[in-house]
Amino acid sequence: MMYKTFLLMAIISFSGMLHGQSIDYPETRRGEQVDDYFGHEIADPYRWLEDENSDETRQWITNENEITFKYLEEIPFRNKLRDRLESLWNYEKMGIPQKYGPWIIYFKNSGMQNQSVLYCRKGYDGEEKLLLDPNTLSEDGTTSLATYSVSHDYKYFAYAISKGGSDWNEIFVINIETGEKLTDHIKWAKFSGISWCGKGFYYSSYDVENEEKALTTKNEYHKVYYHELGNPQSKDELIYENKKYPLRNYGAFCDRDENYLFIAESEGTSGNQLYFKSLKSKKSDFIQLAYGFEYDYEVVAVIENDFYIVTNDGADNNRLVKVNANAPLKTDWQTIIDERESVLESVSYINGLFILKYLEHASNKLYVYNTDGEYKGDIALPGLGSVGGPSGDRDEPVFFYSFSSYTYPSVIYKYDLDTRTQKQFFAPSLEFDGDEYVTEQVFYPSKDGTEIPMFITYKKGLELNGSAPVLLYGYGGFNISLTPYFRLTAIPFLEAGGIYAVANLRGGGEYGKEWHEAGTKERKQNVFDDFIAAAEYLIAENYASPERIAIQGGSNGGLLVGACMTQRPDLFKVALPAVGVLDMLRFHKFTIGWAWTGDYGSSDEAEGFDYLIKYSPLHNIEEGVEYPATLVTTADHDDRVVPAHSFKFISELQYKHTGENPVLIRIETMAGHGAGKPTSKQIDEATDVISFMMYNLGMSYDF
């Protein structure tokens, strides 16, 4: 690839009236960078915005935020909307309890705490005590808990923290009984679990050569280490690496009896190779159990020398197989629970039984089987919705799970496998009556005739005459399923007469491997066609009209919104791409972006370039087109989808867009891709995004 770079004048301001707009956008310097892709010269005038640490980029961020917040501050009902969100947010929340020997560990949030607090108790009725309060780790609440793990002797609690929403983690250890913090401190862990074994734990990390560039530098040569308690990180033992393949990830898992160590190796977001070794002998070597990256293999239970694995190898919708350590060849694998029409989403081993969570038309169901694969009954759920968990112990009959839906917040249930009875363990109370709303599931044809499911939620009695405002949400990628979940930030929109629609697009995991692959690489256009068809269905069925539809999605969903607003700007009034993958020619050059080529393909290959350039949002913005009112959102510490995607996209949009619709970007500071974002910042962002959307849909808010 050849590069030509010429510097132009510094950032100045110009009147948006140059393109028929009423907002004075900052003029973003356009360089003359041109890249050659297989004989095609592609301009990249905003390449300089990829350097997030430069003074020029920082000034650009200041300038863009200044005009965005000036616009947002003029929305007349913005403060009322924020007050309503705060009142809605301020209710007690609880996470699903986890059982570890004598300990029960769970999160709680009193309502407005920036980070949920971790508590523990001995037994179900023991005295509650504070285990870890992430709110004390930083003054502004931007340090969050990323993951945690309890040692197999139940003495120690290892936890990883994230600062500013970054994927980089630091690991610490405390004594559960005393609360004493140990001296152990691990830096630069990333995409890592914490798996206890013996006197320490396994974790994964990268080497970091330049800390200042750590948020954007390509992540290469993932390694697995073992840390023994009391030792400095410099003495940690390197357990596994593969110098031949810098663009692969490795995760370690030790079974509870500490007889076996497993290594999962991946080169994308789906598909993995699997290795294991016996820990009974120091001389044992790793044995490869599963080959290639076409299928997924997840170890869900180890019972003596038998490994129980959920896989889509030979079963697009997943099956449960048993593999014996002494006969690990695939020809010796035994199917315990075969594939069925619905997708097997997860398996939990509790009290000697398997609790299977299925996804049936994008809604969860729970079933009980024994280890021989015999069906033992259903677990009755409250209705159409999403299940969190289950969470239980392999030796005890009691487990917990959560249930939620679009208008019902998460309720935790306690289930007893011995008596086959359940009861509510925790139910939240907030200022909202979900019974006043209805959720229906519809199926509509996409461009090629494929039937696509969609959930539609609105207030009972709402007249469906095509005039209602609609918020259409989607994702469509990486085998991720959108199931009915409680979205607090959508409540003000519903209260004001809005319709909230969620489309289950191809590329997701709602119908298994085939459904996922139908929205990948050269088939990615199917995802956008599905989303466009969702809007067309809502119009045809008299739910809405084009001037009353807003579209929203984050990350891969941000790509979805960017592609659809550039392909069909006439179909939507508002576009809300959040932390989106918007430059499809360079996404793989930053941090973990290379891992997404399994879904997207790569511009490094001629075939990949040919289909990526056709829908890449950045490269399909046209001069003189009136695009929907757009609010791009990103954050300066997003090292998953680096903010340069959003920076370059909005710069090109502001340069070429015509008409009166505002096209703005909101750039959060000390925040990342989304995980661990403090409550205060969540409310700030939700207030701005929802008020922008409602204002540009012609709505008001006066709750």
Could you characterize the architecture of this molecule?
By secondary structure, the chain is an alpha+beta fold. The chain has a domain at 3-86 and 433-696: Alpha/Beta hydrolase fold, catalytic domain (Rossmann fold), CATH 3.40.50.1820. It has 10 helices and 42 strands. It has an 8-stranded mixed sheet, with helices on both faces. A hairpin with an 8-residue loop joins strand 17 (223-228) and strand 18 (237-240). The termini are far apart. Residues 1-21 have low confidence and may be disordered.
Secondary structure layout plus pairing:
Elements: E1 3-4, E2 12-13, E3 26-27, E4 34-37, E5 40-43, H1 55-73, H2 78-89, E6 93-94, E7 98-100, E8 103-109, E9 117-122, E10 129-132, E11 143-150, E12 156-163, E13 168-175, E14 181-190, E15 195-197, E16 200-205, E17 223-228, E18 237-240, E19 249-254, E20 260-266, E21 273-278, E22 287-290, E23 297-303, E24 306-311, E25 319-324, E26 334-337, E27 343-350, E28 353-360, E29 363-370, E30 375-379, E31 386-392, E32 398-405, E33 408-416, E34 421-426, E35 437-445, E36 451-459, E37 470-473, H3 491-495, E38 499-503, H4 513-517, H5 525-540, E39 549-554, H6 556-567, E40 574-578, H7 597-600, H8 606-615, E41 629-635, H9 644-656, E42 663-668, H10 679-696
Parallel strand pairs: 37-38, 37-39, 39-40, 40-41, 41-42
Antiparallel strand pairs: 1-4, 2-3, 4-5, 6-8, 7-8, 8-9, 9-10, 11-12, 12-13, 13-14, 15-16, 16-17, 17-18, 19-20, 20-21, 21-22, 23-24, 24-25, 25-26, 27-28, 28-29, 29-30, 31-32, 32-33, 33-34, 35-36, 36-38
